[in-house]
Specification:
It is a single chain. The protein is mainly alpha-helical and 406 residues long. It has four domains: 52 residues, no CATH class; 99 residues, Type II secretion system (T2SS), domain F (Receptor-associated Protein); 107 residues, no CATH class; 105 residues, Receptor-associated Protein. It has 17 helices and three strands. Strands 2-1-3 form a three-stranded antiparallel sheet. Helix 2 packs across helix 3, helix 6 packs antiparallel against helix 7 and helix 16 runs antiparallel to helix 17. It is flat. The relative contact order is 0.08.
């Protein structure tokens, strides 16, 4: 297959003559075979060239890579470039090995007669990328109506929405996580450096005579100091174990958060935002509402929400309105049902769904800020109490020894 020529990708710095006899210098990235074709197509006579092997970056094919390919592919096709020519251009400019393989495989599948959506699906398997069925559905809808560029733009906007939302959540959590990390370091610093110095001041007999809280703090510091590497190793194993458990097991972290009362509301807002966004994108792209709803159902992590949309799809096929089904549940707010009813009446469900998506996302952001605004002072107060307990314990120990000595 073409992507097996990966190691032959090079950059050519050349000097050539044009048809008019003018000497020019240029650069070309690709295989030597493609370089020769390029010179011929431009009517250039090669005088000299230097070949430099292009070393592509290693790394797994990720969401950002796919998003970048979709965006570039959209702009090229929308400007009038054929799909296969657009892929060739992207292959030449690829700087990552996995992206090069992905694009090359897509091109090979297209040459065999496959549709773009099918080619992308197979290429994703080839590079180990778990592509969402929704992405394939969006592309397929564009192929059905004969407008691949529009479906690529729809997919680009949906991926941008998804990545932006994830980025904002990570950014919002960065400071609280930093505080928690510093708190853990502070705890170790106190028990490793500060507490042992005071422990050395007391003999075994004196240690038995000081208050219990002082004994507990000083002995804990001594234990941590003597078993530091064992404790750090154990903590590392726990952290790695938790990470691997959530990564490779069937446990959904979203479902875990959904069980926490206030966070439950936030998860509902986020899940509905994603579902309505995908539904709106597909409806605007020409997909029928029942097909758009069916694909959006696959985005849900929460069974309770999924069952509502599954019921909605079932009733929709029977001729009922989606707003009527959603009105019967307490999870979907009444004002949302009203907007959906307006969208169904005015045949603007695509626009209404996107508007609802933005509303749910905004509510999610507001609630996230509220949680974080409470979390940050709680962490600071906890650290203050911890330091206060250490200081008071040491002071009580010193005072007790002075009283005994007197």
């Amino acid at each position: 297959m073409r992507y097996l020529e990966l190691q032959n990708k090079s950059e050519f710095v050349y000097e050539a003559l044009t048809l008019s006899g003018k000497k020019i210098n240029g650069r070309y990235a690709g295989s030597f075979k493609d370089f020769q074709k390029y010179l011929k197509s431009q009517g250039l006579t090669l005088l000299s060239y230097k070949e430099k092997k292009v070393k592509l970056k290693k790394g797994q094919f990720k969401d950002d890579d796919f998003a970048s390919i979709v965006e570039e592919l959209y702009y090229l096709i929308n400007s009038g470039v054929k799909v296969d020519d657009a892929l060739k251009l992207l292959i030449k400019s690829a700087s990552k090995e996995s992206s090069y393989k992905f694009l090359s495989f897509v091109l090979e599948e297209l040459k065999k007669g496959s549709q773009l959506s099918s080619a992308i699906k197979e290429a994703s398997k080839e590079v180990g990328y778990k592509i969402s069925p929704l992405y394939i559905s969006i592309l397929s809808s564009g192929e059905e109506i004969g407008n691949v560029a529009y479906s690529l733009n729809t997919l680009k906007e949906f991926i941008d929405f998804k990545l932006t939302t994830a980025s904002e959540v990570k950014q919002a959590l960065s400071y609280p996580l930093f505080l928690i990390g510093m708190s853990v370091l502070m705890v170790f610093f106190v028990f490793i450096v500060v507490v042992p110095k005071f422990t050395e001041m007391f003999s075994a007999d004196e240690m038995d005579k000081i208050p219990y809280i002082s004994q507990l703090v000083l002995k804990t510091g001594l234990f941590v100091n003597e078993n530091l590497f064992l404790i750090l190793g154990g903590l590392s194993l726990v952290v790695v174990g938790i990470f691997l458990y959530f990564k490779f097991s069937d446990i959904n972290f979203t479902k875990f958060l959904y069980k926490i009362p206030y966070l439950k509301e936030m998860i509902i807002e986020l899940e509905l935002s994603r579902a309505f966004n995908s539904m709106g994108m597909m409806i605007k792209g020409g997909v029928e509402i029942d097909k758009a709803l069916k694909q959006s159902i696959s985005l849900f992590s929460i069974d309770e929400l999924k069952s509502i949309f599954v019921e909605g799809l079932s009733e929709l096929k029977k001729g009922r309105r989606l707003s009527e089904v959603f009105a019967a549940t307490s999870i979907i707010p009444p004002n949302v049902v009203s907007m959906m009813s307006v969208g169904e009446t005015s045949a603007t469900m695509g626009e209404v769904s996107l508007s609802l998506s933005q509303r749910f996302l905004q509510n999610f952001k507001i609630k996230t800020k509220k949680v974080l605004s409470l979390l940050e002072p709680v962490i600071v107060v906890f650290m203050g109490l911890f330091i206060a307990i250490i200081v008071v314990s040491i002071m009580l120990a010193v005072i007790s020894i002075n009283d005994i000595a007197m």
